[in-house]
Fold this sequence. Notes:
Layout: E1 11-13, E2 19-21, E3 31-42, E4 45-50, H1 72-81, E5 86-91, H2 119-123, H3 134-146, E6 151-156, E7 164-165, E8 181-182, E9 188-189, E10 192-193, H4 197-218, E11 224-226, H5 244-264, E12 273-279, H6 288-297, E13 312-316, H7 327-339, E14 359-363, H8 381-394, E15 399-404, H9 426-435, E16 443-451, E17 454-455, E18 460-467, E19 472-479, E20 485-488, H10 490-493, E21 498-504, E22 510-512, E23 520-523, E24 527-534, E25 548-551, E26 555-558
Parallel strand pairs: 4-5, 4-15, 5-6, 6-11, 11-12, 12-13, 13-14, 14-15
Antiparallel strand pairs: 1-2, 2-23, 3-16, 3-26, 7-10, 8-9, 16-17, 16-18, 18-19, 19-24, 20-23, 21-22, 21-24, 25-26
Signal peptide: 1-29
Keywords: Signal
InterPro entries: 6GAL/EXGAL, GH, Ice-binding_C
Amino acid sequence: xxxxxxxxxxxxxxxxxxxxxxxxxxxxxxxxxxxxxxxxxxxxxxxxxxxxxxxxxxxxxxxxxxxxxxxxxxxxxxxxxxxxxxxxxxxxxxxxxxxxxxxxxxxxxxxxxxxxxxxxxxxxxxxxxxxxxxxxxxxxxxxxxxxxxxxxxxxxxxxxxxxxxxxxxxxxxxxxxxxxxxxxxxxxxxxxxxxxxxxxxxxxxxxxxxxxxxxxxxxxxxxxxxxxxxxxxxxxxxxxxxxxxxxxxxxxxxxxxxxxxxxxxxxxxxxxxxxxxxxxxxxxxxxxxxxxxxxxxxxxxxxxxxxxxxxxxxxxxxxxxxxxxxxxxxxxxxxxxxxxxxxxxxxxxxxxxxxxxxxxxxxxxxxxxxxxxxxxxxxxxxxxxxxxxxxxxxxxxxxxxxxxxxxxxxxxxxxxxxxxxxxxxxxxxxxxxxxxxxxxxxxxxxxxxxxxxxxxxxxxxxxxxxxxxxxxxxxxxxxxxxxxxxxxxxxxxxxxxxxxxxxxxxxxxxxxxxxxxxxxxxxxxxxxxxxxxxxxxxxxxxxxxxxxxxxxxxxxxxxxxxxx
Length: 564
């Protein structure tokens, strides 16, 4: 956008700083367009990864049974204040050890435990109360009993040690052939799943017993389970390296084990959906990272060989983000996940996965704990919000997960949203605009900001979400300029009621009071807004002479008011 959109009309200043004018401002202002006919993904939710380090409680101590996830204050903070509705947790090898120790060490985890065709007999060897697992079970069971929406996602970082052998050769690392290494605590770093029919069957049965055993222990099944976190990285923490072909065999082994159990137990099936490839990300426009990721996707496509097909796609959000100027390129990169890429300039082309299948951003982090970053890189809270927006509108992500809520010692770092129960941290505030207001079950609908009748994404980013049952529309708006922008919301112009408005521009989350339906909002420079309204006449044909064109089915276009 090229024009300074400052409200010069007769605005009202409400508590918290929201400015709403009952009539159009004298200065040129942004138009918004909503089309309720064009509906995209159904939202599943937002959250973080938990377990393991979250067992170190900053509130009550570190004794067993006193995990931060057992604490009522933490539950109210995560579910009630932040609005989180997803937990991602590791599928921990520590549940399967000789002696069933609460915190088994390397020696306890090396001896093979043979698994048979009977899932329930296999479960007898597992202990789902161990550190880093029992705390998650307690948490999600509480959510289920209270009726709070909470998607449970599991992710494998490493198979049991005895199922791994020499690391496969990916062609671009020097680690091929190295054996799994014992590293900190009880981690098994690197190596690869042994590629034999018997070992693959054992791996599949291990995953099946884990999925059903956790459900039996905590009255809560896994909704989604990732076969391997970042399958091409040889790291110092729990990890396992896969070629695309080996990854497909692992997915196939899990599918076969689920099918084996379901055939034998039709009244108690495993309904967990399999996710992949859970790789690093697609990168920016034209990035080679996308080529590598699609080498895995090609082998496990949901519409490919049913024996090796995933049900759900997941990728991490590390895509070189941060600069506002590159945002549209990153959105285009996300769109290639659905639509594919065809280029003639030396980049590898690939076929997109198409529509009608879920996609999750299963991990992201690296943003600094400040609102914006010097030098216009915006590697802070605004950058985080921008990258969530990009995934929502670019790849139709159904959910988005940040890496950690806090670290094991409760400190602030680039990989966490906050520390302890602190609700006044910039990244926590930015993420809250999505997590608290874009709720499970909502449908994203087409939304645009217009400049002279043309779509313009240079100043205000917009996404909108329909709650059909409630008859409401939730907007999330990002002013990515340093100056105030005036925006009129389509549903308010159509006679809808402003139910709730929240904003952040200083690293904190603020709520504003109710206002009349004038429709003009003043968005401070570098701010995030979440606004909930009723629909008004978005679904109706307006009376002649109203000055607003509403197309049948719900498309509404606001005409620009020009200076005299």
